[in-house]
Write a structure and sequence with these properties.
5-stranded parallel beta sheet, 6 helices, binds coenzyme A, 5 strands, single chain, alpha/beta, globular, 19% strand
Length: 162
Amino acid sequence: MHIKALYTGSFDPLTNGHLNIIERAAKLYDELTIGIIVNPSKKSMFSLEERKEMIGETLKHLDNVKVDCFSGLLADYVNENKFNVVVRGLRAAMDFEYEIQMAHMNARLFDEQVETVFLMTDPKYSFISSSMMKEVHTLGGSIEGLVPEVILNKMNGSIMGE
Ligand code: COA
C-alpha cells in the first residue's frame, strides 16, 4: 500500500524541531505533504507564500516531500486529498492533552482509513516553539542551530528590512 502522510502546522517559522519530525516521517511513509495553515489566533511574521517558499527550499533534499497550503478544517483537507496518516510531533507532556483532544475530534471527522500518528520530538528540540524563536530573534538573541539556515537568513533579512 502506498501511504500518504500529512504533517501540518502554521510553521511561522519552521524550526529544527519541525525539521527533525519531517525527516523522520519522510523515512516512514511513501509520500509526505507539509500542509501550512494560517492560524488566525496567531500573529504571523511571514506570509503563507513566504513560508511555502522557505520550507520548500529547506526540504529540497527530501525527494518524497512536498509543500502545500490549506485553509478551513484539517479533516476536510485530509479526506479530500486521501491522506492515510496525519503526523503530529509531541515535545513534552504539556502537548499531550491538546493533541489527544484534537486527535479524537479529528477521528470523528476523518474518513475511516486515516490514523493520527505521534512522533516524539528529539529532546534537544523539545523546548522550541515558533513564537519563542520569533521573540528571541526579534530581541537580538541567537537562535542559531534552532532554525534551518534558510529560515534564519530570511528572519535576519526581515528584521533589517523593518
Ligand atoms: N518542534 C518545534 N516546535 C513545535 C514542534 C516541534 N516538533 N511541534 C509543535 N511545535 C510548536 C509550533 O512551533 C507551534 O508554536 P507556536 O504556538 O509558537 O506557533 C506550537 O508548537 C503549536 O504547533 P501546532 O500544534 O502545529 O499548532 P499550529 O497552530 O501550528 O497548527 C493545527 C495547529 C493546524 C494542527 C490546528 O490548528 C488545525 O488543525 N487547524 C485547522 C482547523 C481545524 O480543523 N480545527 C479543528 C481541529 S480538531
